[in-house]
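ARCHIVE RECORD
Type: protein–small molecule complex
Small molecule: phosphoric acid mono(formamide)ester
Source of inputs: curated submission
Record status: active
Notes field left blank by submitter.
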Amino acid sequence: MTEPSIFIHKHILGIKELSPQDIHHIITTARSFREISNRPIKKVPTLRGKTVVNLFLEPSTRTRLSFEIAAKRMSADTFNLSGSSSSTRKGETLIDTARNIQAMNPDVIIMRHGRSGAPHLLGRYVDCSIINAGDGAHEHPSQALLDAMTILDHKQSLAGLKIAIVGDIAHSRVAHSNIFSFTKLGAQVCLAGPATFMPADITSLGAHVCTSVGEAVTGADVVMALRIQIERQHDPLIPSLREYAVHYGINRALLKLAKPDVLVMHPGPINRGVEMNPDVADGPWSVILDQVTNGVAVRMALLYLVLGGDKSA
Ligand code: CP
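STRUCTURE (tokenized, with ligand):
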């Protein structure tokens, strides 16, 4: 079912820690699980008896729901704790929260947190596996894995592809994880966005910074737009959303500069009419909902692999 290599990672904290072989192994495993979601009975016993805690201290629709669906389709027991309903609201620290969850002996904690490094901190206080479901502006590894899987559904390989990522790079954990993933798999990553959204050291990650969105999109195999992360900006970094849409919004005219078979991607949630026009988001180039579908399969694979599925195969 999977490649012969054994997956050795107890935690999934970021793409930075994964090798290209790990990434391909996760995607191959995800592909083997994908058809389970199309069966009349969408359930296999693979993770029966395992306990999965979803600890989401920031809002989420796609990531939280798809991790829960993934765990349930593999027969794990899932439990959800959100920021609004947890005792963190009463002042309990993250470390105390982690110790109390550990005392209930889960097998894996899936964590989203507004602060970069929070899942790494949690890992020092619990024995179970941790999967980072997005930490601040740092990393969102499962998103990058489902993005690579979606591209590989349409392209033989990422090697040599030009991938344009447009928008709020500085505040985007998706951008950071995807730069790591796409460059590890051999793609050329071209970034575009307002200067205030571009970290000075981003080229050290191997991405190329373009002077205009037109330069980034010209000849691109993939165009990915990112949401402006208003919640992570203390002061406004752009004059207005209307002006941003004019200069950086992905529209049909801009897509004419890309390859004819360009894939249009967005991690969601989309601000329609800001970073992407609705006719582009819903057009023939768009694989945005395929990203969401693949998210369930990738998260099934991650749960299976961190819980030692390879070793028991
Ligand atoms: N792509 C993504 O992380 O979406 P959610 O915030 O809805 O989980």
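CURATOR ANNOTATION: The domain at 15-139+293-306 is CATH 3.40.50.1370 (Rossmann fold).
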